[in-house]
């Protein structure tokens, strides 16, 4: 009996041990890990609450940091949404975050005085906004000196002031601005708006206004047909007046004389004239179609003068139908030609000596009235002759803008322009293209 019971005891003991072992090996359920925070947020690092003049680029760079939870979101799309000027839409600038999750933006203020707002958006790969934040700046009115015009895209080709004071600016082709190649300013360059209804898109190469406020705008700046547009209502409606112009490729210049003669010069078509605001055109005889012309002026006796690309002076005594080259010295190399309201002529020469000449007898004789002060190793070429009232303005290479009323005393603005387009307004605000950007000067 002893031997028969022992196995049973042993089995029961083993089973008990097995239960104990099994019970001892049981594991507790693990605590779930906290969910990973993938929330996108934007922190403003630098550049908020700045203060500067309207139209200026704020002095400090806007820096934001995009986080996914607590970690930098690298390569994340960031859009800086700047409300633009007046009727213009918002301007979106798209960048991507760097290895620190940061994105950077230089904020050019619009033309609105007071608080301006910049909205920063974090955009995922599907184009969905995941977060946004705001930066603010205070824009103040300009004081004296040079300032950039607010709300005007880069790439200035032409400037013109209408009799009512409005200033027009013609621009290069800008893919980011739809039909935005003609802009206007009603405060002499401080702020700008897009001219509505202007045909386009194309490059604006020249602008001319008549004393009656009619407008002529030439477009096209490549070796392809351009166009000449006419408006009699300050740019509200436009008519194409190109038909009849000899080879309308690459318009170079538009001139309008005191007797109402309209002249246009194109790169391959020479000089064309119209006496009915561009409805019909006549090619000028005696001038080469392969030459380019500028600065047609009308003398008191009705004779006309024009300068060609080779800086030679031509004259017409029959209303622009026929032209002959003059031999007046020292004007064998004219660069700019200007006729003022008194009938006096001013000319700069295509040389580096900084000279200006004046004629009071319709160009029969000329007297030197100005020589630029010497600047070592500089071509003192005089360009952009303009007269407002009794004040003559011009630019001298290496020196900058000069003004005088008597050719005895001079004001030198001492700004060396990096562009060639310059115009004083009737209120003596100076407008200057500087590497594509328009600057204005307040006294």
TrEMBL record:
A molecular-function term among this protein's GO annotations: hydrolase activity
Which keywords fit this entry according to its UniProt record? Answer: Hydrolase, Signal
* Keyword Lipid biosynthesis among record annotations: no
> What SUPFAM superfamilies is this protein classified in?
Oligoxyloglucan reducing end-specific cellobiohydrolase
Q: Which GO terms describe its biological process?
A: xyloglucan metabolic process
CDD domains reported in the protein's UniProt record: Sialidase_non-viral
Chain ranges of the DUF6242 domain? 271-401
Per the UniProt entry, the signal peptide is: 1-26
> Could you tell me which InterPro entries the record lists for this protein?
BNR_rpt, DUF6242_C, WD40/YVTN_repeat-like_dom_sf, Xyloglucanase_GH74
Q: Which PANTHER family match?
A: EXO-ALPHA-SIALIDASE, XYLOGLUCANASE (EUROFUNG)
UniProt name for this protein:
Glycoside hydrolase
């Amino acid at each position: 009996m002893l031997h028969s019971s022992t196995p049973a005891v042993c089995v029961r003991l083993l089973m008990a041990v097995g239960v104990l072992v099994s019970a001892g090996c049981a594991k507790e359920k693990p605590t779930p890990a906290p969910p990973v925070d993938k929330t996108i947020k934007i922190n403003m690092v630098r550049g908020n609450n700045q203060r500067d003049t309207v139209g200026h680029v704020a002095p400090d760079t806007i820096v934001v940091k995009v986080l996914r939870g607590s970690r930098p979101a690298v390569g994340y799309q960031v859009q800086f949404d700047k409300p633009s000027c007046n009727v213009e839409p918002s301007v979106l600038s798209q960048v991507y975050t760097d290895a620190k999750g940061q994105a950077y933006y230089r904020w050019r203020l619009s033309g609105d005085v007071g608080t301006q707002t910049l909205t920063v958006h974090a955009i995922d790969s599907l184009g969905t906004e995941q977060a946004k934040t705001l930066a603010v700046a205070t824009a103040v009115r300009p004081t004296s000196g040079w300032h950039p015009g607010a709300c005007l895209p880069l790439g200035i080709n032409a400037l013109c002031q209408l009799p009512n004071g409005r200033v027009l600016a013609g621009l290069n082709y800008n893919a980011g601005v739809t039909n935005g190649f003609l802009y206007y300013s009603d405060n002499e360059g401080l702020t700008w708006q897009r001219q509505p209804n202007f045909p386009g898109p194309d490059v604006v190469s020249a602008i001319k206004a008549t004393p009656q406020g009619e407008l002529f705008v030439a477009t096209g700046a490549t070796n392809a047909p351009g166009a000449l547009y006419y408006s009699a209502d300050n740019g509200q409606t436009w008519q194409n007046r190109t038909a009849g112009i000899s080879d309308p490729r690459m318009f170079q210049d538009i001139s309008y004389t005191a007797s109402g003669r309209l002249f246009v010069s194109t790169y391959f078509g020479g000089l064309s004239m119209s006496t009915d605001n561009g409805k019909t055109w006549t090619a000028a005889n005696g001038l080469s179609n392969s030459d380019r012309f500028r600065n047609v002026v009308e003398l008191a006796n009705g004779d006309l003068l024009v300068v060609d690309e080779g800086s030679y002076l031509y004259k017409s005594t029959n209303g622009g139908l026929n032209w002959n080259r003059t031999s007046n010295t020292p004007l064998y190399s004219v660069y700019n030609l200007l006729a003022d309201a008194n009938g006096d002529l001013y000319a700069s020469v295509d040389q580096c000596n900084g000279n200006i000449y004046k004629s009071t007898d319709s160009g029969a004789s000329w007297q030197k009235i100005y020589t630029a002060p010497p600047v070592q190793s500089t071509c003192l070429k005089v360009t952009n002759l303009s007269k407002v009232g009794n004040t003559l303005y011009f630019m001298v290479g290496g020196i900058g803008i000069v003004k005088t009323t008597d050719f005895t005393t001079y004001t030198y603005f001492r700004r060396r322009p990096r562009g060639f387009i310059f115009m004083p307004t009737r209120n003596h605000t100076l407008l200057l293209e500087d590497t594509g950007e328009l600057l204005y000067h307040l006294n």
